[in-house]
């Protein structure tokens, strides 16, 4: 028995570093974000919503307002990243890069409001993906932040603009929020996407065509690289 106990201890000591590395690779997350559970009988849902189903709802929310996403890209899903900021990632398979993954921060894994705020922001980038290494415009990043606040309000989780913790995103948001007071705001976004197939890398003159009366300075601010 003593020999067996000693052998077991040796095995555990050998495996311990491997087990620790495996554990370190896990991201603990909120059950509500990752575990779909059956709804009560008679309820209007089949399963509780997770990040995957929320992504679909946000995508519908965004497309209804600003037009359909570019379906030339394959949306693979959502994952968490050790990076400090969320992003859209363009993985390459056998030299082909036509796929997109949304990456949320590790801290968002246990904070539902933060996760949905980040997810809504990144979903906007699915409308007209710029591709790897391309700079987004103030218009695109401001719109993504604007939609994040809009979506949270729409589902009863409203936060104020003070929730935006990065100054440059707050600035882009204020520029777009001012533009959004125009009654033709959404129509202008749709028009830009129809004419240019994108939301970034757009000349200021195109901004003025989309929103008549926009000053040259306002157009340049929106068209500037973020």
Biggest sheet features = 3 strands, mixed
Strand count? 3
Label the structural class: mainly alpha
Total individual domains: 1
- Total helices: the number is 9
The amount of helix comes to 40-55%
Helices and strands, in N-to-C order?
Answer: HHHEEEHHHHHH
The Cα radius of gyration reads 22 Å
Give the spatial strand order of the biggest sheet: 1-3-2
* Low-pLDDT regions: 1-22
Can you describe this structure?
The chain is mostly helical and 226 residues long. The protein has one domain. 50% of the residues lie in helices and 8% in strands. It contains 9 helices and 3 strands. The chain has a 3-stranded mixed beta sheet with strand order 1-3-2, covered by helices on one side. The termini are far apart. Mean pLDDT is 89; it is low at 1-22.
Fold topology:
Layout: H1 2-24, H2 31-34, H3 51-66, E1 74-81, E2 87-89, E3 99-105, H4 112-124, H5 138-154, H6 167-179, H7 185-196, H8 204-210, H9 216-223
Name some characteristics of this structure.
9 helices, disordered N terminus, globular, single chain, 226 residues, 3 strands, mainly alpha, three-stranded mixed sheet
Structure, briefly:
By secondary structure, the chain is mainly α. About 50% of the residues lie in helices and about 10% in strands.
């Amino acid at each position: 028995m003593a020999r067996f106990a000693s052998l077991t201890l040796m095995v555990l000591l050998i495996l311990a570093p491997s087990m620790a590395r495996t554990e370190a690779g896990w991201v603990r997350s909120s059950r509500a974000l990752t575990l779909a559970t059956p709804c009560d009988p008679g309820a209007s849902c089949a399963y509780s919503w997770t990040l995957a189903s929320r992504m679909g709802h946000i995508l519908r929310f965004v497309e209804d307002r600003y037009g359909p996403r570019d379906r030339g890209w394959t949306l693979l899903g959502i994952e968490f990243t050790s990076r400090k900021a969320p992003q859209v990632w363009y993985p390459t398979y056998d030299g082909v890069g036509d796929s997109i993954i949304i990456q949320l921060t590790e801290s968002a894994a246990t904070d539902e409001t933060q996760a949905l705020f980040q997810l809504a922001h990144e979903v906007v980038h699915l409308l007209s993906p710029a591709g790897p290494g391309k700079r987004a415009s103030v218009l695109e990043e401001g719109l993504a932040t604007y939609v994040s606040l809009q979506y949270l309000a729409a589902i009863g989780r409203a936060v104020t603009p003070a929730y935006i913790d990065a100054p440059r995103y707050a600035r882009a948001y204020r520029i777009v929020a001012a533009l959004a007071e125009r009654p033709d705001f959404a129509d202008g976004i749709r028009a830009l996407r129809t004419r240019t197939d994108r939301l970034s890398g757009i000349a200021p003159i195109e901004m003025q065509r989309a929103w008549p009366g926009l000053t040259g300075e306002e157009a340049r601010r929106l068209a500037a690289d973020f």
